[in-house]
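Recall the central idea of this unit: under ordinary conditions, the amino acid sequence of a chain determines the structure it adopts. In this exercise we apply that idea directly, starting from the sequence alone.
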Amino acid sequence: MKTLLIDAGNTFIKTVGVKKGKTVPGKQFRTSLLSEKKIRDILKNIHICVCCSVVPRATARLKKICRSSCIKIYFLTYRDITLVKLKYAPIKDIGADRIAAIIGALAQKRPPFIIVDIGSAVTCELVDKKSNYRGGVIFPGIELSLKALNEGCALLPDTAFSRPRKGPGSNTGECIRKGVWAATLGGIEKTVSDFLKREPGAAVFLTGSGSRFLRPGDLSFRYKKAQALVFNGLLQFYKNLYNQNLIERDIPISK
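Accordingly, the structure predicted from this sequence is:
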């Protein structure tokens, strides 16, 4: 039996395999390059898929191809989290990636904790000491901010991100990178500081592709980098399906 975990995000579709109950490296490609060929490539020799998706067209294509290829597919939703009470309305609006990250954090730490996921959007989540999910904050991430400046301002160039040096920017590209970086760090700093006032002592997890740019001293609070947090959550979901014999009986609990 070969199992694949899939995180279908707005910027990247990422995968990891499962071997002896642990994750092993997989493939990834930009979501903008999504095609039937790409999906069939990542599903080669796979029997089971466990997914979280925030991209409806990716969800639809995965379902279609898995069904035509007799691959069992399971999608994580808010219904699949049991150890945290979700204080959110409407509850169905919570992204599956956010649910996966919370499950991944629960496998490492008892609440309270804060999750900061730096991707296309930056999402910040708060789970309090009573295991209530209190909601969070969402604002544009690095790539989305760069894209908005390029598309919304006629004279601003399309700019690739790299961690900016200290001091003011000496050219337009550098000014854009510094501005986006400052806005991202500032948003995280303000949000987490507010959350910590509500839940002093909460652990802070940083995840998502953008977390790789952070260095010690960038933020005033202590944090733990956990770039595989979403996949760890998907792995816990898969193990739960397995332990309940839902996979063997072919009963997808999330539609």
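The first helix runs from residue 36 to 42.
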